[in-house]
Design a protein that fits this description.
CATH topology of the largest domain: Elongation Factor Tu (Ef-tu), domain 3
Helix content: 10-25%
CATH superfamily of the largest domain: Translation factors
Number of domains: 3
CATH class of the largest domain: Mainly Beta
Distance between the termini: 92 Å
Strand order of the largest sheet: 1-2-11-10-7-12
Largest sheet: 6 strands, antiparallel, barrel
CATH architecture of the largest domain: Beta Barrel
Shape: extended
Order of helices and strands: EEEEHEEEEHEEEEEH
Number of helices: 3
Strand content: 25-35%
């Protein structure tokens, strides 16, 4: 079995391990994701399509496809061997992952525009000596004259970045289940807020989103009531202080009159 999820890259930071070592990590905010389609014999292969992130408006065909599920910004498909545990509408989040998981992360790399051979392919350039004016970062010869054409695959300047990049064997250092953030050791492709696809071994744990919302609402109510109680206490203390100050002022006025 494999477990997978979609998320957004947040930033890079660092975490301290139990042994005191500090490791660089990438924070990825994942889920909650919902199963939007389960593909089987009718489609000729077994896969699961999931939706992630909300948007305000979607077109009518997509709205029909996502009926009663919500307006998802991203839809991605994952091939699975057994779809018996999956059903349309099931929801899962970061709680399916644990620290120590070995992850395969896929994302679109940062776009760097048109770049030369030194940055794009790591050419060393020409020597900075006599006879090499304005030639330091140029590619040099690209082949023999006889061919009269440029061979396919010749390393030259061109568009760099915006490639689908997959990085394997990344360790999951920490899981913040409450905020839905995975802290992954090392760097992850892409810019901030770019879509990240994460796959690892294991089994997904489905959740009840309504129960989670109710729990969040109850927590917010408790926090608001506690904050209100603190505010009431502070107001009461301020009123008492003002009353005491008025008493002291009136007593001093009486003494002066005498």
């Amino acid at each position: 079995m494999a477990k997978f999820i979609l998320g957004k890259k947040v930033e890079m930071t660092q975490k301290f391990l139990e042994n005191g070592r500090v490791v660089p990590v990438t924070a990825v905010k994942v889920g909650p994701c919902a199963v939007t389609q389960v593909k089987g014999e009718k489609d000729g292969y077994t896969a699961v399509q999931i939706g992630f992130d909300k948007r305000r408006v979607i077109n009518k065909p997509l709205a029909g496809h996502l009926k009663d599920l919500g307006n998802f910004r991203y839809l991605r498909e994952f091939t699975v061997a057994d779809t018996s545990n999956f059903a349309r509408g099931k929801v899962f989040d970061a709680t399916s992952f644990e620290a120590g998981d070995n992850l395969k992360v896929t994302a679109v790399s940062k776009g760097k525009g048109f770049q030369g051979v030194v940055k794009r392919h790591g050419f060393h350039g020409s020597p900075a000596s006599h006879g090499h004016k304005d030639q330091l970062r140029m590619p040099g010869s690209i082949g023999a004259t006889d061919a009269a054409r440029v061979f396919k695959g010749t390393r030259m300047g061109g568009h760099m970045g915006v490639d689908t990049v997959t990085v394997t064997n990344l360790e999951l250092v920490e899981v913040d289940a409450e905020n839905g953030i995975l802290y992954i050791k090392g760097a992850v492709p892409g810019h901030r807020n770019s879509l990240v696809s994460i796959i690892t071994d294991g089994e997904l744990k489905f959740i009840d989103p309504k129960a989670k919302e109710e729990k969040t609402e109850n927590t917010d109510k408790k926090e608001s009531s506690a904050a209100k109680a603190i505010d009431d206490k502070e107001v009461k203390e301020v009123k008492e202080e003002k009353t005491e100050e008025k008493k002291e002022a009136s007593e001093e006025t009486k003494k002066e009159d005498k």
